[in-house]
Amino acid sequence: MKIMKNIKLSIFIFVIIITSFIGAGSTWAADPSVVKIDGYVTDQASLLRPEEKNELNSLLSDFDQKTSNQFLVVILPSLPPGENLELYSLKLAEASRAGKKGLDNGLLLLILKEDRKIRVEVGTGLEEKITDGRAGRVIREVIAPAFQEGKYFSGIKKALFTLINWVEPSYFPEGSEGARFQEENEPGFLFFFTLFILFIIISTYLSRLDRRRWYKRGFSQRTMRPVIYPSSRTRSNRSSGSSRSFGGGGFSGGGGGFRGGGASGGW
Amino acid sequence: MRKKTTLFIVLGILLLLVLGYASKYNSFITLEEEIDGKWAEVENNLQRRADLIPNLVATVKGYASHEEKVFTEIAEARSRLLGAQGVEDKVKASSEMETALGRLLMVVEQYPELKADQRFAELQDELAGTENRLSVARLRYNESVKSFNARIRRFPGNIVAGMMGLEKREYFQIKEEAREVPKVEF
Hints:
The complex is a heterodimer. By secondary structure, chain A is of the alpha/beta class. Chain A has a domain at 41-184 and 254-266: Diaminopimelate Epimerase, Chain A, domain 1 (Roll), CATH 3.10.310. Chain A is 43% helix and 12% strand. Chain A has 6 helices and 5 strands; from the N terminus they run αβαβαββαααβ. Chain A has helices spanning 2-22, 50-67, 85-96, 132-148, 152-167, 187-217, and strands spanning 41-43, 70-76, 106-112, 117-123, 258-266. Chain A has a 5-stranded mixed beta sheet with strand order 1-2-3-4-5. In chain A, α4 runs antiparallel to α5. Chain B contains 7 helices and no strands. Chain B is rod-shaped and about 95 Å long. Chain B is mainly alpha-helical. The longest helix of chain B has 62 residues, at 2-63. In chain B, α1 (2-63) runs antiparallel to α2 (68-83), α1 (2-63) runs antiparallel to α5 and α1 packs across α6 (157-164). Chain B has a single domain, classed as de novo design (two linked rop proteins). The chains are: A alpha/beta, B mainly alpha. The A-B interface holds A 2-3, 6-7, 9-10, 13-14, 17-18, 20-21, 23, 26, 86, 90, 131-137, 140, 259-266 and B 1-2, 5-6, 9, 12-13, 16-17, 20, 23-24, 41, 121-126, 128-130, 132-133, 135-137, 147, 150-151, 154-157, 186.
């Protein structure tokens, strides 16, 4: 009897200790106020015609498969009451999990039809290619002017072309529609490039001169050749697209992270 | 026979206690690391903002060179922010910076040519983006501080936390008026 009692007691203590140590860990609950995203393009404001939506969808899906960057377009009639544009867009982006885990190469273009507001939410990994200034520029110079004329589809498409070209300059084949949205080299770059070439020419010339002089004096020949490194470009998993799933729960991206980069604007 | 059972029970409880302590200990260490990581992100953004300011001021000066007072104010706030040490100091310096920035942006309102300047528009986007990133970093930092502070006070974590000498972490609180001022609007 006594043993039975002891065993019961020890089980009781065991349970108490275990439960008290485990405790309920606080987890991020899914926010119910966040709209469900059903694909690369979600249009709840009927801003686009079905064939327009399909065209954007296949562009973004192909871009995802070839480069693993996940760009999403979400169009809503207006912001849910009590929400702030930036925080809401971040919530949406996080819920969509756009981008590949680790690379964080997701992007969300949020358009609020009645509020006439636009937000470009840039994944942490793309912040260097799409700086806040660039994100703002695409809103001011590409989307807003088109939207003011009621050209919603072309505004969104051109914006996506521009953004894609910033992230993967070689994605659009030469001569294709998207390639026209490649930015010309910034003047600063061209200037420095010319300087660099000039510098190489001059230094090669000088080193040759030097060598000849040394040669005459009987010094051993020095090899001084400017080294030009082949331009290497880092590519992020070109062959394998990022994981994503569509069934039942709508779109769910590869788990990319966001931290509030991007820009807001309106039209 | 009875003695043996008691011994086993005592040993079992001790083992559980040790295991429980170890798991709490580890989870506190992880949480502390998380808080430090999130604080680093806050600091990054403060630094980023401080780095943007000279450019911004230079651009504004091109159009509004006689607004000396605002420029000195912002330069002072910037150097205070860069010199600040520790959470409390940095939070204070950051809110001063925000007030100064708010004044600068109010000055900007009076110069339509400046607002039309494309370079300035981009700088303003960068600043707005940094502000937004800062507020996200602040939010995430505060969230992990909140969960840390709650866990070190709840039973039985409080016992372990007491033995580890852990103390409550500070929140990054902002004054209401400071939050309103620096909003960058178009």
